[in-house]
Amino acid sequence: MAEHAPKPHANHSPSTQSIQVGVVEWFPFEAYVGVEDSIERLERLGVSQLRTGVSWADWNRPGGPAWLEWLLPRLTERFDLLPCFHYVPPSLGEVPSTSAPPINLDLFAHFVGHVIEQYGESFEYVELWNEPNNRVEWDYTRDPGWIKFSAMVGAAASWSRELGKRVVLGGLSPIDPNVLEILFERGLMRFIDVVGVHGFPGTWDARWSGWPAEIQRIQAVLDRHGSDAPVWITEAGYSTARHDEPAQVLAFVDATEAPGVERLYWYGLRDLEPERSAQTGFHLDEHDYHCGLVRNDGTPKLLYRAWERGGFDAVRELAGWQRERVSVEDGQPLVIVTGGAGFIGTNLVDRLLTDGRAVVIVDNLARSGAETNLRWLRQRHGGRAQFEAVDLRDPFALRRALEHEIDAVYHLAGQVAVTTSLVDPISDFEINARGTLNLLELLRARPTPPPLIFTSTNKVYGALEDLKFVARGPRYEPADTRLREHGIDERRPLDLHSPYGCSKGAADQYILDYARSYGLPTVVFRMSCIYGPRQLGTEDQGWVAHFMLSAIDRRPITIYGDGRQVRDVLAVGDLVDALVLAREQVESLRGEAFNIGGGPSRTLSLLQLCRRIERLHGAAPKLSFEDWRVGDQRYYVSDTRRFAARTGWRPRHSLDAGLEQLYAWLCQLRGVNAKRPRAAAFAAQEEAVR
Ligand SMILES: NC(=O)c1ccc[n+]([C@@H]2O[C@H](COP(=O)([O-])OP(=O)(O)OC[C@H]3O[C@@H](n4cnc5c(N)ncnc54)[C@H](O)[C@@H]3O)[C@@H](O)[C@H]2O)c1
């Protein structure tokens, strides 16, 4: 079966036998569009339980009743809703704040009763208040012993029950048995059907002792008072402020495994807008802004991606990889591959493991499809490679991942698309430039820094605007004969184009300078287009695979420019040979950059690739043309003679064989029959190793 075959989109909301999983989302006042967007995204996850805030403060604003009148029916027609009633209208508080006790404690019950009478038919439970022991939500310093709180919530709870609702106690945060004990003493718990707790281990909960122990402490208080109220986790979450999206996956799975808990609501769907003030203040605590399943720009985080793709099984698989520790054979130094779950990284790790090396993969799985690559490596090699789910931007996590005796570091991880760098140049810089510097600093701190081989790009040479190219049939050619025969060599001055060019160029220069300034054994590869199996090409990166996939999927291909732009292309197996050679011969190569690619004998224009695809696939891909993209070179062919002369490296794959191999792999990925016999043979051979 194709590796990527989508699962049927039934309700694959993660649920084990004992726990139902929903989502918490707070909707800002009158955010109509945001609500519609959230509904759609939650439906894609198959989520049916939603917890949301019903703000008394908002209801008291002009337009408040109209907003609720729209919001509640809209949500209840799609979800099993748990409304959480909270926030004092500042005009009614002891002081003008949403967390201050109201002057008239009974008014809260009026508000709750009113909402139940209006909309209560479509929900079963009401949650009364949010985080009563979090001063930001309820200012308990104005209410020592929760006396006012118990009176206010007790009245609202009793009324809610009279109106046929079951009452959830606003989640304790932090989970604190002392507060629950006090609420029993105040008599409030007589009106409570479910006890809510909140937990944010790794984000806000210091002194966390694990879900089982935390829940047990609450259960002990309930048992002591003879209460059979079940415990729900009404809010659990993890902020990815440190860019640690895999850790969010782990935190999620941990919460779903909390023993004795019937229901869990995960906080939240979307990161907070950076321009808005959080409850704690404007960026007072950066964690506030990054608890979503999707980022503020709407792009999905790792947890959302896995959940959408494969439900709880896929999420649990990701967590399982992170929890596992591989015992590395006695004293064998490790090879670190950053970006080891990417296209080139997977091919390199496969070779290293086949050669009997011990490998650590450092990758944050930012690349969609990286999980598939990891699964493939495990199917071929068992759990022989250690996976460290680390983002280059987190120097502390990176340091922990490198706490081994290291034989070599291949630094492949990065933001890889020019287009993405144009949309978000800061993240691109942070990952490629700063992330590389983080790695260099960690290596510099070691008594004997290991060799580091870095995959830079031909983009550091810019658009080559001073060179003359002429259009010849379907391709551009350099007017200069030498250039035509040999390609671009390393004497070409750097000319950084596009934010991606700048960030990779900065990293390229730091890597070389750490050889110069600190004596680190580093080598830079300035690479042209690499192609081959495990390349999940998109329009933004990996054009050879992208073109083939488009043909297989019968999607039209957009060509930016006239399609005559020429690249040399190198089969990934040949690049892996070069990477291994660079490590072996690092002493003679250290401190140098090398142009690596297919060279003049392995070149293609976009139009020529389309023709080859037509021959392979039996049908011509449909093309449309758009304007040139920023920094796109008319022609780039690497002069690889220097590396070849120094190491004896020669590419082994012909263009024909390499393209056919990639085509066969992509056909297999899509679950379609490769048209050509040799390609089909390759697919069968791959199948045999699964
Ligand atoms: N493929 C090419 O044609 C080509 C050409 C020139 C240079 N390169 C360079 O080679 C390297 C590998 O390229 P690829 O084609 O395999 O790309 P890829 O996207 O398949 O792999 C990159 C890997 O890095 C990981 N990653 C991304 N951001 C990260 C972060 N912040 N922390 C940790 N891991 C992170 C991704 O999850 C992915 O697995 C890149 O540095 C790229 O710039 C590639």
TrEMBL record:
Keyword DNA damage: no
Protein name: CDP-paratose 2-epimerase
Major enzyme class: isomerase
Domain (NAD-dependent epimerase/dehydratase) ranges: 335-597
Keywords: Isomerase
Signal peptide stretch: none
Family: Belongs to the NAD(P)-dependent epimerase/dehydratase family.
One MF term in the entry's GO annotations: CDP-abequose epimerase activity
InterPro entries: Epimerase_deHydtase, GH, NAD(P)-bd_dom_sf
PANTHER family per UniProt: DTDP-D-GLUCOSE 4,6-DEHYDRATASE-RELATED
EC annotation from Swiss-Prot or TrEMBL: 5.1.3.10
One Pfam family, short name: Epimerase
Gene from which this protein is expressed: rfbE
Top-rank taxon: Bacteria
